[in-house]
Amino acid sequence: MLKIIDIGMNHETAPIELRECLGGEADHTLKALAWMRNHASVREGLFLSTCNRVEALFITEEAEAAKESMMSFMAELGRRQIGDLLGCLYVLEDMNAVRHVFNVASSLDSMVVGEPQILGQIKEAYALATREKTSGVILNRLMHRAFHVAKRVRSETEICGAAVSISYAAVELAKKIFYVLEGKKVLLVGAGEMAELAARHLLTHGVSSLVVANRTFERAVEVAGHFKGVPVSFEEIDSELMNVDIVITSTASPDYVITQEQVKKCLRKRRNRPLFFIDIAVPRDVQPEVNDLNNVYLYDIDDLKGVVALNMAQRKEEAVRAGRIVEEEVAKFEKWLKTLAVVPTIVSLQDKAESIIRAEFGKSRSVLDQLSPTQYEAVEILTRSIVEKVLNDPIVFLKGRAGRSTVNTYLDLTKRLFGLNGMEAGGPGKADHGE
């Protein structure tokens, strides 16, 4: 009996040092696929390696032997003792493995629920398995259903719709104030990592230009170079406040870098254009009273964390809805998988009918040759239509019994009734491609 097995480790079960051993080198995935292709107990296989997870997904008829061999291979791949891995690996079988694959593809099993990168990584892993000829009927179907589930989760829930990082939260707030970010100008004060990331996200959302101010001008030049921006000195901040729309601050200054008085002076010349401050510094760079000025909006790190916490709660709610979609799709896949048991008998039945048609047409060749091409085609269509209708009921009956405890009895009875013993078509073979 074919079994679906998933053996892996992720950010929750294994430290990064161990994950790096198994997935850190570029050729590890190819080595794993080559091993699966050549191992007698593995029928189909896929290997997924990301910064947060390493997983081997495979189909086998010899579950225990294949699991033991796979874990030994993974230890060898990472140049570790198998004992180092055992406490960090999860081993999932059949529908538990399918459910896990659907959850991973839908980003329900990610460090940040709803992040979009994992689906692309799974698609790359599947494309490589296809190229290396380790995928087959079951994996093909499983992967395509996983992509379908991920699409449903993204379109039917809001799991990806809320920012869950400080930098993304800053962009989300900026959009609420300006509606559209195209053409807006940003002043980056300081060179903190989160501020740089927020600036990068703003630029990808249409912000037109970036000015960088830093106490050390050389550092301003360096950071501006990353964004094709303009470096300025700290003394030029006042004049830049008149021109920009968004200010991101992230310095190590113990005192306020931007005061209410500074901002107040520039407002008249701005002619009521909104000015948005994102203060990611601790201690704060922007005097809190700035928020009291008209058309000025100030958010500090606590405000942004509040947005992130709210959005994380929203994602968790959406994850419950997404989980229902996953369960629905797992049930559909299980139903399809059970039909595989009756496929060889159905194929044999259809093959026998086709051989009878060919044989009888051969016997009647002398008569049929007297027909015009149109008449010959009409006879052939009529013959095949009659045969298909005769076979339809037994085929539908067998499919309806797939997965039941009595299926083997009905399969045996069908073989006896139609004389199929000895001509049964095989089930899905090793890396038998197609869906």
Q: How many structural domains?
A: 3
| Number of distinct helices | 17
Distance from N terminus to C terminus (CA atoms, Å) equals 19 Å
Poorly predicted runs: none
Rounded to the nearest angstrom, the radius of gyration is 32 Å
Please name the fourth-level CATH homologous superfamily of the largest domain: Glutamyl-tRNA reductase, N-terminal domain
Secondary structure tally: strands: 10
| Most strands sheet | 6 strands, parallel
What percentage of residues falls in helices of 4 or more residues? 55-70%
Q: Can you tell me the overall shape?
A: elongated
CATH architectural group of the largest domain: 2-Layer Sandwich
Q: Specify the CATH class of the largest domain.
A: Alpha Beta
Describe what this molecule looks like in 3D.
With 435 residues, this protein is an alpha/beta fold. It has helices at residues 16-23, 28-38, 63-77, 82-86, 94-105, 117-131, 137-156, 166-178, 193-204, 217-227, 237-240, 260-270, 301-339, 343-363, 365-368, 373-401, 407-418, and strands at residues 3-10, 42-49, 53-60, 90-93, 185-190, 209-213, 230-232, 246-250, 275-279, 296-300. Helix 10 links the parallel strand 6 (209-213) and strand 7. The protein is 56% helix and 13% strand. The protein is built from 17 helices and ten strands. The mean pLDDT is 87.
